[in-house]
From TrEMBL:
PROSITE patterns: FLAVODOXIN_LIKE. One of its GO terms (molecular function) is FMN binding. It holds the Pfam family Flavodoxin_5. Residues 3-157 form the Flavodoxin-like domain. It comes from the Bacteria. This is Flavodoxin. It comes from Planobispora siamensis. GO terms for biological process: heme biosynthetic process.
Length: 167
């Protein structure tokens, strides 16, 4: 089984989550690769897709939205999971942070199996004045939770194995 983990990321922390997911899927015996959503030309060669986007001002990263639009037809026939990364605190670990409107619309459009929100990350390397002033004011940090990300990935692997067995 080949799984694509496609992501839209501005400051590379969502890319890091995508890498963690691909690694965890590979550890479960699946063939998985993480790629920037903008660089994916076709999804035909994949059996399943995980699509993630960073959150900025309650919007899902444009590359994730564009990917969902561009590949809507082939994705309709595949198992799809979605994630967002954003909250710069532990709220994503404590509660189920609902999908923003755009991600929820993609979930419906693609019939995705699930959407989850993971904590985000913002460091003084981030692009943009606002981002750096958030960090300067002590509200940055790395709130990604590798264990939770791996756990979600293992659940995806289990569902895919189940799908393959029942074929
Ligand atoms: C200007 C700005 C706006 C943001 N807006 C949101 C938001 O609406 N919701 C949220 O959960 N996180 C928000 N964040 C936090 C980012 O989503 C977080 O830093 C994320 O990890 C960035 O992903 P990236 O490194 O892949 O670009 C914002 C960060 C910045 C700098």
């Amino acid at each position: 089984m080949r799984v694509l983990v496609a992501y839209g990321s501005k400051n590379w922390s969502t890319a890091g989550i995508a890498d963690m997911i691909a690694e965890a899927l590979a550890a479960e015996g699946l063939e998985a690769e993480a790629r920037p959503a903008d660089e994916v030309r076709a999804v035909a060669g994949y059996d399943a897709v995980v699509l993630g986007g960073a959150l900025y001002n309650n919007r899902w990263h444009h590359a994730a939205r564009r990917f969902a639009r561009r590949h809507a037809a082939p994705l309709a026939g595949k198992p799809v999971w979605l994630f967002s990364s954003g909250p710069l605190d532990d709220s994503a670990d404590r509660t189920q942070v609902p999908a923003v409107r755009q991600a929820d619309a993609v979930r419906h459009a693609l019939g995705a199996r699930e959407h989850v929100t993971f904590g985000g990350c913002l460091t003084d390397q981030a692009k943009g004045f606002i981002a750096r002033s958030i960090v300067r004011n002590g509200r940055g940090g790395d709130f990604r939770n590798p264990e939770r990300i791996a756990e979600w990935s293992r659940k995806i692997a289990a569902e895919l194995r189940h799908t393959a067995e029942s074929r």
